[in-house]
Structure formats: C-alpha cells, structure tokens
Amino acid sequence: MTDAAELRRRTAELLAAHPPADTDRLDFLRARFDAGLAWVHYPEGLGGLGVPRSLQAVVDAELEAAGAPDNDPRRIGIGLGMAAPTILKYGTEEQKRRYLRPLWTGEEVWCQLFSEPGAGSDLAALGTRAVREGDDWVVNGQKVWTSSAHLARWAILIARTDPHVPKHAGITYFVCDMTDPGVEVRPLRQVTGEAEFNEVFITDVRIPDSRRLGEVGDGWRVAQTTLNNERVAIGGMRLPREGGMIGPVSQTWRERPELRTHDLHQRLLKLWVEAEVSRLTAERLRQQLVAGQPGPEGAGMKLAFARLNQEISGLEVELRGEEGLLYDDWTMRRPELVDFTGRDAGYRYLRSKGNSIEGGTTEILLNIVAERVLGLPAEPRTDKDVAWKDLAR
Fold it and tell me: What does the H/E/C string look like for the chain?
C-alpha cells in the first residue's frame, strides 16, 4: 500500500531523474504525470496511483520545496475541475488515455459548452441539436458565457439528441473539437472591459460517436458530475487565511488608518469572520471528497463564495472613498484567467457581480440546497413530463 513515505520516495526519484532547474517545464509535467504524481487519487496509468486524495498534499509540498513547476491550474481550471472528473467517471479507456494527460499538463485547454441564450438557469431546456448520421453526430446550435473558448482545444458539450421526450431525458454529452471550422467563437465584452467570456456558434460540426461520454440520452446525468465538480471547484478552492477577496481589503484597512470608521470596522470584522468560516468549511468539503464524489453541498459553498465576494468588494470600494471610484484599465482584451487580487478595487467590485451567475445562478443553487441538502419539498414543475418539442419557447 502506498503511504506518505512511499510518495516522498517516488517524488524524490522524479526530482532526481528530472531536476527542475535543468528540465523543460512541459517535459517535467509529463514525467510527473507518468510517475502517477499528478493527481494521486486517479488510477495508475492516468496520472495517479489510486491512493487517497489527501496524500496529494505530500507530493505537492515536496515539489514546491524543490522549486518544481506546476501546471498553472488557474489557467486550465475547467479541464481540471470539470472535464477531467467527468471523463474519468464516464469515459472509455481510450478516451481517458487520450484526453487526461494533455489536459493535466496544460497542453490542451478545455471549455464548457453548456449554457445557451434560451437555456441558462433552465439548462435542461437547451436547444442545440445533435443528429446521428452514421458514425457521426451533426451538431448545430449556439452556446453562451463560455470561459476560455478563445483558448480551448476541446470542449465538453451537451446537446439535444431526442426532442420527443421530456427535456432532461433527450440530452447527450459529447467532446467537441474547438478547432473544427464549424465552430465560431465571438468575444462577449463585459462590464470590466474584458472579454473573458465568449459566445460560440456551432454549424454542421461533425462529432464522431467515439467522442460521446456516457450513453445516448443520458447526458443530463453525466452533466451532473460536471456541475457538482464545477461548484466545488468554484466554492471549495484552497486558500490561506486572508486569501481571496478578504485579503486586499484587510491590507488596506491596516495600511490606511485615515480611511477607517466605526461602521466600516464592524462590517469588516463580520465579513472577515464569514470569510474564515467559509475557508474552513471548504477545507472540510475537500476532505469529504476523499470518500467519494462531490454532492450538492458544493452548491452551498458556491452560494457563500458569490455572496461574500460581492459584499467584500462593495465594502472595499466604500472604504477607499473617492479612490474606490477609479478604474485602472478599460482596455478590451481576452484574458487567460480571472485575477481578482491582481487588479484594483474597481475591477473586483465589477467582476464579482458575475459570481452569482456563473457556475449556477444563486436562485437555482438555493433550490438545490433546499431540495437536496435540506430535504424540503420540490417546487412544482409542470413541464417535467412534457416532450421538449411541445414546450413553450
């Protein structure tokens, strides 16, 4: 059985064979994956060793101390946090071996083609169609709010394959090649000035049936794995004390005593405590993941993440007074990642408004917590047994 001591030995072997100072970054990451030290809880041959997730911290600490490069997880968060767990659970052995290694090393960026102009909160109402033609599926439709689509090599895609059954039952899950000429990515400029999100138009894109994940018509169940992992990835990220949004406002409070008021002090204390409670709760959630798949608890963490970010950023703007009304750069650009702490207070305030929409709207997540965590009665759903083609749109 592999334990912490064995993992340290394996990590030392990796470092000896591939010294970080003398090894190309990508070569080192590939060697780490092949050694089973990428995500140790994954199966052998797929970047892991089949050991408890908690032991990953042992490997990470040894590599960090040695100055080894990481895979820049913020840049490839969709692949790591959403695509990979879904592929691991539903993919064929061939799919796992094709996609997981370049996904983890960052050689291939992933995006998520789920939301549509008419299917955001009600995702199961999606209208993108996939029609079977021989060994291929021909896909047509439009997706929206797609992070990293301008960088992505692959996308996880859900499309309607049977309009004659209720909306949740007629969906199938695919892997889409973003370099296909029928895929058009257009930037969506946000209130921050950036175009971090995109809209994606899909026209006669042929997806081989070999790139289907799960069974035909079972896409909604497959998508739940993606969505549960997405909420954990957003709301359960690992942070140090005063990490995230609470850090900059706390620093301003300490360095700028002339800005302080009694009211702002009370609000800051309250939010600091809530941020710390949320951080520790996220740690407990990650520990629970060791025993199995993420559940609806991730929805609660994502709710807390969105509310806290918006309240903390609002407090920071007020604390800074007139300075809080300034904005550093309205330049239209298409960034590779969201950097909350690398920009000014105005950016944090504006960008945090999207936190209650992305990864599941607050209203939908409240329903999930009410029904699946607290066990409250479900809301009436009159369209539950109606064929998708007969729904009012």
Answer: CCCHHHHHHHHHHHHHHCCCCCCCHHHHHHHHHHCCCCCCCCCECCCECCCCHHHHHHHHHHHHHCCCCCCCCCCCHHHHHHHHHHHHHHCCHHHHHHHHHHHHHCCCCEEEECCECCECCCHHHCCCEEEEECCEEEEEEEECCCCCCCCCCEEEEEEECCCCCECCCCEEEEEEECCCCCEEEEEECCCCCCCCEEEEEEEEEEEEHHHEECCCCCHHHHHHHHHHHHHHHHHCCCCCCCCCCHHHHHHHHHHCHHHCCHHHHHHHHHHHHHHHHHHHHHHHHHHHHCCCCCCCHHHHHHHHHHHHHHHHHHHHHHHHHHHHHCCCCCCCCCCCCCCCCCCCHHHHHHHHHHHHCCCCCHHHHHHHHHHHHCCCCCCCCCCCCCEHHHCCC
Q: Which residues are catalytic?
A: 230
Distance CA 375, CA 312 (A): 31
Q: 52-78 pLDDT, tens per residue?
A: 888 999 999 999 999 999 999 989 999
Q: Which residues have C-beta within 8 Å of that of residue 149, sequence separation ≥ 6?
A: 111, 113, 155, 178, 185, 198, 200
Amino acid code (one letter) for 229:
N
Give the integer Cα–Cα distance in Å for 346 and 327: 5
The parts of the chain modelled with pLDDT lower than 70 are: 1, 235-236, 287-297
- For residue 388, what are the β-bridge partners? none
Phi, psi of 51 (to 5 degrees): -110, 170
**Beta carbons of 124 and 162 less than 8 angstroms apart:** no
The radius of gyration computed from the CA coordinates of the chain, to the nearest angstrom, equals 22
Predicted confidence at residue 382, as pLDDT, reads 85
- Identity of residue 58: V
What is the reported pTM? 0.90
